[in-house]
């Protein structure tokens, strides 16, 4: 008999595919809604020209309820469940059903009131939330797979332990915030993005199951941004897709593949394919070759910045705790 968590994973992926198709099929209803012209890269196009009380109230209200639900489920799981099992637990069923409900709710909200959080906050806030998620994963996984070619980095266990313990809250915020930022319109970029967010919600819903820590399934979550970023860049037609493709592929070669238990010759083969593909793509336009390092450079620097912020926060917490203990002792 197949484990319940594996069945839930398969059903969740199928649900994600079918609901993405539903967004596409219903998308034509939204094409007649008047929107502002596109004012450039800092402008988010898919928002109402004249937002209403209900368009704002439903976007922000439903987002907050979804966010509190996600955090509440995580808190319950960490305080009441606290162990991994080869199957589903009641909290997983609740999370799966709850996220499916909010996905449907956002679909209805888009078709009745259209607007998402984008009406009131910058597009950069949505992108920053995704970057924080990706960087947080790199940090908390360093004890298992290192950061550069499987090599460990001088980051304390207290910092990585904190990142692992509280990652669910950060990931839930990043995913739910980004989910409600966008209306469920049927552009190619939105469809790919929503499908990716559905998978991330599925991963969160399977917390404290064996599938949640399955190295191949978690790899799918990490490399999903490679496909999303590259395909969206291709669709935009500004010839920046190599920066996203080789940037995220470079992180896979430098870090992610070293947590999979691959043989050495397989790793060298993957590196060879990466180098050969870069030579083919950038042949004749070598000045652009620096694009390859832009995304990895940003993410790896951000890992150390994040580690420093967490370490600083832990130090402050220790100092406050020591002073309180000293004052009580006096």
Structure commentary:
With about 325 residues, this protein is an all-alpha fold. The chain is built from twelve helices and no strands. Helix 4 packs across helix 12. It starts with a helix and ends with a helix. The mean pLDDT is about 90.
Essential attributes:
mainly alpha; single chain; 330 residues
Low-confidence stretches: none
CA-CA gap between termini: 62 Å
- Rough outline: globular
Which structural class do the helices and strands define? mainly alpha
Question: How many strands, which pairing sense, and closed or not: the largest β-sheet?
Answer: none
Strand content: under 5%
Average pLDDT value? 92
Q: Could you estimate the helical fraction of the residues in percent?
A: over 70%
Instruction: Give the beta-strand count.
Output: 0
**H/E element sequence:** HHHHHHHHHHHH
Number of helices: 12
Radius of gyration, Cα only, in angstroms? 21 Å
């Amino acid at each position: 008999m197949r484990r319940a968590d594996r069945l839930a994973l398969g059903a969740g992926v199928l649900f994600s595919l079918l609901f993405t198709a539903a967004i596409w099929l219903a998308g034509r209803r939204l094409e007649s809604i008047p929107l502002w012209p596109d004012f450039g890269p800092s402008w988010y196009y898919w928002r109402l020209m004249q937002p209403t009380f209900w368009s704002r109230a439903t976007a922000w209200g439903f987002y907050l309820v979804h966010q509190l639900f996600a955090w509440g489920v995580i808190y319950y799981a960490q305080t009441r469940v606290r162990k991994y099992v080869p199957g589903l637990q009641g909290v997983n069923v609740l999370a799966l059903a709850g996220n499916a409900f909010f996905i449907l709710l956002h679909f209805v909200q888009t078709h009745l009131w259209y607007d998402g959080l984008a009406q009131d906050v910058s597009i950069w806030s949505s992108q920053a939330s995704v970057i924080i998620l990706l960087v947080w994963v790199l940090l908390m996984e360093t004890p298992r797979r290192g950061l550069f070619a499987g090599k460990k980095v001088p980051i304390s266990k207290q910092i990585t332990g904190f990142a692992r313990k509280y990652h669910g809250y950060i990931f839930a915020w990043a995913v739910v915030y980004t989910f409600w930022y966008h209306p469920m319109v049927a552009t190619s970029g939105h469809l790919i993005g929503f499908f990716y967010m559905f998978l991330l919600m599925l991963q969160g819903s399977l917390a404290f199951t064996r599938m949640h820590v399955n190295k191949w399934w978690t790899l799918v979550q990490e490399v999903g941004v490679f496909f999303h970023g590259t395909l969206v860049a291709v669709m935009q037609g500004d010839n920046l897709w190599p920066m996203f493709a080789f940037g995220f592929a470079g992180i896979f070669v430098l870090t992610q593949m070293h947590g999979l238990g691959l043989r050495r010759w397989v790793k060298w083969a993957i590196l060879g394919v990466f180098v050969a593909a870069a030579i083919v793509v950038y042949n004749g336009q070598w000045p652009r070759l620096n694009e390859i390092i832009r995304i990895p450079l940003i993410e790896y620097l951000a890992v150390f910045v994040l580690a420093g912020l967490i370490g600083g926060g832990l130090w402050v917490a220790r100092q406050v705790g020591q002073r309180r203990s000293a004052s009580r002792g006096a």
